[in-house]
Amino acid sequence: MTFTIDLGGKSAVVTGGGQGVGRAICLSLAAAGARVIVNDYVPDRATLVAKEIEELGGAALASPFDVSDYAAATKAIGAEKVDILVNNAGNAGPPTLEAAPPGGRGPSVSLGEFTNTEPADWDRYFAVNLYGVMNCTRAALPHMIAAGDGRIITIVSDAGRVGEPHMAPYAAAKAGAAGFTRAIAREVGRDGITVNNVALGTVDTIGLEDMARESPELAERVRRQLKRYIVPRLGQPDDVAGLITFLASPAASWITGQTYPVNGGYSVNM
Ligand SMILES: NC(=O)c1ccc[n+]([C@@H]2O[C@H](COP(=O)([O-])OP(=O)(O)OC[C@H]3O[C@@H](n4cnc5c(N)ncnc54)[C@H](O)[C@@H]3O)[C@@H](O)[C@H]2O)c1
């Protein structure tokens, strides 16, 4: 018996697809046959991943824009026939372009004690993790409703499910995105559109485990973190991409309004 996911003829937008988890999702959707529109705030990142897909024989287009810019998201996504939207862009939003080489880190999701922060510090988390999701979903839905078919998958975080100290604004924005997508799932189910969340534990997108080999302090932090995981390793981007590709497929047409953890067992669902 074989099992194949065939996304031939489908177009997928992946936000923040220029590196890390987003890049793995782009490659996986393309391998399943989708044409992938690779979004990233950093144009070079989007271009490199689109090129990588084409070199592997897939179809891709780089689409650089900032998801927190409603007009830009509407213009870019509105110009495409979008069957699949993966809201992946997140964390603390875009770095400045000067500080954003392909593979570089963005600003930290950790802000320290909440009582030491002010509303101006919170904005960037809501801009990308909540408004970015709302903007792109708003832009993609009219196509999907007209087609009577669609898939929306939003990457959230266990920080927004279980809570994580020093990350309150990030956790709040991710929990907001999860609530938003549940509401949208109820609005568009009868249009053949499914809407789900995937909540991640720590995924080693920045070479954390490699860095820990050189820093005893970081190694200790990673060791403490892994003690909380049933499968005691950090996640890898490919651990996420398979579930996203399945949820994007026709095989997942009766799955909607859900939040799936991909987290090595850091938290468990009933
Ligand atoms: N890596 C983890 O441990 C982890 C854990 C939980 C959730 N997540 C979530 O998974 C998703 C991917 O994380 P990652 O670790 O691969 O992140 P990453 O920072 O390595 O990559 C994110 C990409 O998104 C782009 N981006 C950021 N803001 C953007 C914006 N406003 N518009 C367009 N592009 C933008 C960045 O340029 C970057 O290329 C994020 O939503 C993140 O919050 C990650």
TrEMBL record:
Keywords, in A-Z order: Oxidoreductase
Highest taxon above the source species: Bacteria
GO biological process annotation, one example: monocarboxylic acid metabolic process
Gene Ontology molecular function: oxidoreductase activity
Pfam family, one: adh_short
Oxidoreductase keyword on record: yes
UniProt family annotation: Belongs to the short-chain dehydrogenases/reductases (SDR) family.
Name of the protein described by the UniProt record: Oxidoreductase
